[in-house]
Amino acid sequence: MRKNRIVVPGCETQTLKPGERTNGEGKPVANQILLRLPDEEFAAIRQELKYVHLPHYTVLHEPKEKIEFSTFLNSGLTSLVFNTDHGSSVEVGVVGNEGFTPISIAAGLRRSPHQAIMQVSGDGFRIRVDSLEAALKTNPQLQILMNRYAAVHGLQVAQTAGCNRLHDLEQRLARWLLLVQDRVGSGLLKITHDFLAMMLGTDRPSVSLAAGMLRKKKIIEYTHGSVRVLNRKKLESSACECYGLIQQFNSEMLPNSAPDAAAGGSGYESGSGIGG
Predict the structure, then answer these.
(1) Got the DSSP string for the chain?
(2) What's the pTM?
(3) Structural domains in the chain, sorted by start
(4) Per-residue b/e over 166-199, b at no fewer than 16 CB within 10 Å?
(5) Torsion angles phi and psi, residue 265, rounded to 5
(6) How far apart are CA 68 and CA 62, in angstroms?
(7) If the chain, 276 residues long, is cut into consecutive pieces of 10 residues, what is the mean pLDDT of each piece?
(8) What does the alpha-carbon distance between residue 114 and residue 233 come to, in Å, rounded to a whole number?
(9) What are the phi and psi torsion angles at 13 (to 5°)?
């Protein structure tokens, strides 16, 4: 099979298999936006992409503060959280390796109303906002992909807001677990009921009741500080229609993604877990 060759000025030519890319440090790229860039546009930012390990609870940016860096995830999960002046918090969106944060950068805004925090550890690439903004001016496909993701993510945020207002907690919990599993794969998610309550905008006893209903149906199991999905199909049936709509938005963002992924992760087998 023929291999692609990416030539970066000032760097040794690197031979890559089709679909494979690395940054200037030789770290492999798994972010979907970066992988979909034409070779010449990726080469334009390759040396600016700095690899970062992102442990659990790493804060990528704070609300209202001037943002110096943008992050393209390879793996893991970022929660976008709205914090009130009174100390209450609720998750308004999630970002995996399909996107980047802060979303506002796509519109040339250096501040965000949300905190971005790693809820599942992972890794990715950090780029200075100055460098990214300069690249956006001369790389049209990068601009198109980032704008499209920003629009799709805005639809996700709006759908989540409606879901939190109109659907019962068991449905919302199922929707949230599905979105997380789609982004981090199989395995065990280390998460507490207190955290779930914050993400879903409710209290711990209510989350415990909803999780208990899913456990009674043998859809999930949980111990202190961790949750595992036992039956993916039943979890999908327990979720509200918001999950399917959000996945439809995502398939619009990534039209070339695999059918199973675009359809909401239907390739997951019963008994798969949530990675962490």
Answers:
(1) -PPEEE--TTS--EEE-TT--B-TT-PBP--HHHHTS-HHHHHHHHTT-EEEEE-TT-EEE-TTSPP-EEEEEEEEEEEEEEE-TTS-EEEEEEE-TT-EE-GGGGGT-S--SSEEEEEEEEEEEEEEHHHHHHHHHH-HHHHHHHHHHHHHHHHHHHHHHHHHHHS-HHHHHHHHHHHHHHHH-SS-EE--HHHHHHHHTS-HHHHHHHHHHHHHTTSEEEETTEEEES-HHHHHHHS-HHHHHHHHHHHHH-TTS-HHHHTTSTTPPTT-----
(2) 0.79
(3) 25-160 (2.60.120.10), 167-262 (1.10.10.10)
(4) ebebbbbbbbbbbbbbbbbbeebbebebebbbbb
(5) 75, 35
(6) 11
(7) 35 51 96 96 97 95 94 94 82 91 93 92 96 96 95 85 82 88 74 77 86 92 85 91 80 52 41 40
(8) 32
(9) -60, 135
Please count the residues of the chain.
276
Q: Which amino acid is at 180?
A: V
